[in-house]
Specification:
By secondary structure, the chain is α/β, with parallel strands linked by helices. It folds into two domains: 136 residues, Alpha-Beta Plaits; 273 residues, TIM Barrel. It has 16 helices and 16 strands. It has an eight-stranded mixed β-barrel, surrounded by five helices. The chain has a five-stranded mixed beta sheet with strand order 2-3-1-6-7. β11, α8 and β12 form a beta-alpha-beta unit.
């Protein structure tokens, strides 16, 4: 996405403050800042039909129409086929209303070159609570959302988590407990693709929390809060129930896949959690896997390994997550009843640009295979990385190259349309990838 200098820049930080352009009463006490990027999806077709000169006036007409409809916002073109809109609002729900209104507004035809034409709007947005001091990230989130919107054919919103140092952890723990009790959380899913078989092998469930005041809060923040406040067990059981219900929906749609849930190391020695989790899985007949970090076993290795074996005996498969991110220990690794090992994305993102990372990845794959485990590479984002991993013998991949984490409805559509096949087929190993793998492995 083009980071053009024509981006809105009315303050030192590059983005307007809450008072800029605010004339609507609903934004008198703003708590949210929205950056909406609009692209004309059929711009190339329109330009061929009407010419460059007329299409330049089309962007001006789009800006004029949006400015008239949303006087509280600041709107300006940022390219030949893109428009940017910045606004502030008191509530997060305003963003969905604005996106729907923009779609409806732009569905009305424009007069271009003496003819009527229709544009196909592509909308991506980023939302952040105010105040915040990360305008660059807000812009990057909006650009990523726009890229996702091009792929998914619908408006996409990314939310920027508020800074942790602005929140009271005790209050946050209380809010999290209430969110568990009142279904204030939701789950997104990310597929894992089997490289050789070119099929979706399983899915990872990723817990999300949209706080009513702070907006999206990263799991990297609220999971430690849940562990400190002892909310982690009910939180994980809530996730497990949600996943089991969603899995039933997938089965009804014709997609019977195992779903993996992340398990905190604190829970591996919690007998009450083990008992309740096993009961949920066995009573429902669900195909569930648990992802655990290798370092989490170190807390209480005897209990952890015994309980992991209990899970396996109940039909729950175990995957070792983030391998390589902590202090990996072969003494524990060989004892874990795991069938899957996930290489941390730290090593995957630099796979094609580093000399050492390919050596580590290749040796890890060989080690896992020697221990009769399949290997998953996390954070795969490029066809080149996929091609190299394929040559190295990696079994499965997971990452934005295949799909970002998505909701149940989008996941069902992705599985039905076999959205992974074109990407995997495109990234077949090349002779160069084989040469690099052999040289580095």
């Amino acid at each position: 996405m083009n980071d053009s200098p024509s981006r809105i820049a009315t303050s030192e930080s590059g983005l307007p403050g809450p008072a800029t352009g605010v004339t609507n009463a609903e934004a008198v006490d703003p708590h949210w800042q929205f950056l909406i990027l609009l692209a004309v999806g059929n711009f190339t077709i329109l330009r061929r039909r009407f010419g460059r000169k007329h299409c330049a006036t089309l962007i001006e007409m789009i800006v004029a129409r949006l400015t008239e409809a949303f006087p509280e916002a600041m709107v300006r073109p940022t390219g030949a086929a893109e428009v940017e809109m910045m606004m502030f609002a008191p509530a997060r729900a305003v963003l969905e209303d604005r996106l729907a209104a923009m779609n409806a507004l732009l569905s009305q035809p424009f007069e271009l070159g003496g003819e009527r034409c229709r544009v196909e709007p592509v909308l991506g947005a980023a939302a952040a609570t105010v105040p915040h001091d990360d305008d660059i990230r807000l812009l990057e989130d909006a650009e990523q959302a726009l890229g996702d919107a091009h792929i998914e054919g619908r408006p996409v919103v990314r939310e920027m988590a508020a800074r942790a140092d602005r929140r009271d952890r005790i209050a946050l723990a209380r809010d999290l407990s209430q969110a568990v009790e009142h279904d204030g959380l939701y789950v997104e899913y990310q597929p894992k693709v089997h490289v050789r078989q070119q099929r979706i092998a399983s899915i990872e469930a990723l817990l999300r929390w949209r706080h009513p005041v702070y907006g999206m809060i990263s799991p990297m923040e609220f999971i430690p809060v849940a562990e400190e406040s002892r909310v982690i067990a009910p939180l994980t059981l809530w996730t497990l129930r949600r996943v089991i219900a969603d899995q039933q929906s997938l089965i009804r749609a014709g997609h019977d896949l195992r779903v993996y849930v992340n398990i905190s190391g604190m829970l591996l020695s919690d007998q009450n959690f083990v008992r309740e989790a096993c009961a949920l899985v066995t009573d429902s007949g669900a195909r569930i896997g648990f992802e655990i970090t290798e370092t989490s076993v170190i807390r209480d290795p005897d209990s952890a390994i015994a309980n992991l074996q209990t899970f396996v005996d109940m039909g729950i498969t175990v995957a070792i997550d983030d391998y390589g991110a902590g202090l990996s220990s072969l003494s524990y690794l060989k004892q874990l009843p795991a069938c899957e090992l996930k290489i941390d994305k730290l090593f995957i993102t630099q796979l094609t640009s580093s000399n050492r990372d390919p050596l580590i990845v290749r040796s890890t794959i060989d080690l896992a295979h020697a221990l009769e485990m399949e290997v998953v590479a996390e954070g795969v984002e490029t066809p080149a990385a996929l091609a190299l991993l394929s040559v190295m013998g990696c079994d499965m991949i997971q990452g934005y190259l295949i799909s970002r984490p998505i909701g149940l409805e989008a996941l069902t559509r992705f599985l039905t349309e076999q959205g992974h096949q074109a990407t995997v087929a495109m990234a077949r190993p090349t002779p160069f990838a084989r040469l690099v793998a052999n040289a580095r492995g």
